Every structure is written in C-alpha cells, then in structure tokens.
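Deviation from plan, reported transparently: S-adenosylmethionine complex.
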Amino acid sequence: MTTLALDTPVLARQYEDLSDKQYNHGKLLLGDLGLVHGQRVLDVGCGTGRLTEYAAGLVGEAGWVVGVDPLPLRLEIAKRRAAANLLFREGRSENLREFQAESFDAVFLNSVFHWLPEKAGSLAEAYRVLKTGGRLGISTASKERPHALEQVVRSVVERAPYDAYPVTSATTPYKVTSEELTALLEQAGFRVRSIEIRSFVDQFDTPATVIDFSRSSSFGNFLGALPDELRLTAIDEIKSELAKLRGPEGIVLTRNLIFAVAEKFDSSSTTRSIAS
Ligand SMILES: C[S@@+](CC[C@H](N)C(=O)[O-])C[C@H]1O[C@@H](n2cnc3c(N)ncnc32)[C@H](O)[C@@H]1O
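Because the crystal trials were delayed, the predicted structure below was used instead.
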C-alpha cells in the first residue's frame, strides 16, 4: 500500500534533480492538451512544480496555473518558483473542493494516476472543476506493457526471503491498461479524444542512480512492503542485476506510458438535441 508518510527532504531534492524523465514526457502531455494563451490550468500531483512552471509559460500572463500536491516537502521546492500566474496548494486529487465547479480549461495528472489506489473519486473531481469542453490529460504507467525496471525488480523480490511479503507491484502500484483507463474516463462522464502507449528509452549511468530515481519518484514507497533490513538487501541485489545490464551506453531501460486526453462534454445538450 502506498503511503504519503515516507517523503524526506533528501528524496524531495533528488526528485527535483532526477525528474527530467517525467518533465520531458510531461511536455508531450501538455502538447497533446494543446494549452493556449489565457487558459486556466490545474496540475494535480504537481510534485516539485517543474512542469507546472512550464505550463504557466504556455498560458502566459493572461492565464494562470495552480499546482496541488499532498507532499509538503515537494511543495516547499515548488513554491520557490516565482511567477505571477503560478500558484501552489496542498491537496489531493480526490478532494479538490477548494476549487469551484467549472473553473479550469484544462486539468492534468503527469505520472500521478498510477499512485492513486482509488481512481473514480479523482476523475469525478477533475470532471467537476473542468469547464464544459475542458480537457483532462493523463500520463500513467501501462499495466499491459510494464516498465523494464519492473522485470528486474520482480526477478529479485520473487526470490526468498522477499517472496514472503506482498509485493503486489514491484514499481508503480496501481497501474491500469488503456482499456481500463478508457472505461474509467467514460464512467466519469468524459469523452476520450486520444489514448495511446508511448515508449521512452532511459539511460542511467549507475545502478545507484536507478535506485535514487525510483525512491524519489515513489516518495519513499519503492519496495515499501519489505521490512527496512530486507529492503536494503533487496536493493543491493537489484543493483547487482542492473549492473549486469550495463553496456557502452550505460543501463538502458524502457518505460511504457499511456497518454490520454479526454473532454468534458455536456451530456444534457446531447440528450436535449436527441429529444427535440
Ligand atoms: C512521480 S511524482 C510526479 C510529479 C509531477 N506531476 C511531475 O510530473 O514531475 C508523483 C506525485 O504524485 C503525488 N500524489 C500521490 N498521491 C496523490 C494524490 N492522492 N493526489 C494528488 N497527488 C498525489 C505525489 O505527492 C507526487 O508528487
């Protein structure tokens, strides 16, 4: 089970330093959303706010962007980003009540959805705060094509003594397939505009960098089901497995992410036009 109680100043700082991967695929997500000058945008699970700041640049001074995240240490870094059209708040995807209904042109969750154990409440909140015609963008780890790192981690945690613990997912815990995401979006009232899996080939210099990336991206939840002592030995074994993969280009691992863009449409107007 994921907890929000394991973040530390070191992990938050490492995330800021090591999150180029999320930042770069996040830019693709914002491209899919087609943000334009003057729009109001909500970044749910904004972390240290790098992508939020980038979004603020896209909407310009006539628009504004709010980032929300439940982790105070990540927000502390985010709040150092000064821009007149950029705001950060502590909050969770499943409770966006501080924002009025129909107040945003776009909402996005970049590398956040796979951390949410319960998806429907978060999608209902995104739907509520979006204006009619507004767009939701999601990038999330694919259940049908797990990251290469997942296989490496599994090869270790499925061995004794780690196999005595319920490591249900070796990396991101609450992945969905494209089909499941489509169904969730439609159940929340969205119309899916696009959904596809994109693959990213990542290069890491050392096994230790892979572990730092995983621990900071998971706000301390990496191998969280293992007791502290076993987690340390498992990490050593994972590092050995990663070292075996090292080639002239370093350690090369592929990530597969679902990118979805969905629109809030006015179902009552469709019903009306069918009825008339
Ligand atoms: C991998 S980071 C992604 C951060 C940022 N979106 C980015 O692209 O760099 C995952 C983020 O999800 C946030 N998160 C976890 N549970 C959440 C929830 N229930 N509501 C909102 N954000 C959540 C974490 O606090 C963390 O900052």
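The chain has ten helices and seven strands. We consider this an acceptable substitute for the interim report.
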